[in-house]
Design a protein that fits this description.
Strand content: over 45%
Distance between the termini: 40 Å
Low-confidence stretches: none
Oligomer: single chain
Helix content: under 10%
Order of helices and strands: EEEEEEEEEEE
Mean pLDDT: 96
Length: 121
């Protein structure tokens, strides 16, 4: 079983910064893609940013230039540095990982429990 544990969510003023972390634990062969998604009240969950095992990144247009995703493969951890935060960034942020478990021929999708980010105006 693979577990993802997020941390770093908080209440912050507009213009401020936060760094989210997500650590994967358990027994698995390797972690391929990792990413961050968010869900605001009354809205669908949306992609924020993703990163491949090789470091290629992809961002939602709304966060380009403000957020940076990175990962430390030695620690099975993905980060999201969020700068110039806006009230519209308020949401529960979820970590996602595509994991190849031992003995499997395909990747399985795992989610963290979510961490709340609230940006006040």
């Amino acid at each position: 079983q693979v577990q993802l544990v997020e941390s770093g969510g908080a209440l912050v003023q507009a213009g401020g910064s936060l760094r989210l972390s997500c650590a994967a634990s358990g027994i698995f062969f390797r972690i391929n893609g990792m990413g961050w998604y968010r869900q605001a009240p009354g809205k669908q969950r949306e992609l924020v940013a993703t990163i491949t095992s090789g470091g290629s990144t992809n961002y939602a247009d709304s966060v380009k230039g403000r957020f940076t995703i990175s990962r430390d493969n030695s620690k099975n951890t993905v980060y999201l540095q969020m700068n110039s935060l806006e009230p519209e960034d308020t949401a529960v942020y979820y970590c996602n990982a595509l994991v190849r478990t031992i003995g499997s021929n395909y990747d399985r999708n795992y989610w963290g429990q979510g961490t709340q980010v609230t940006v006040s105006s």
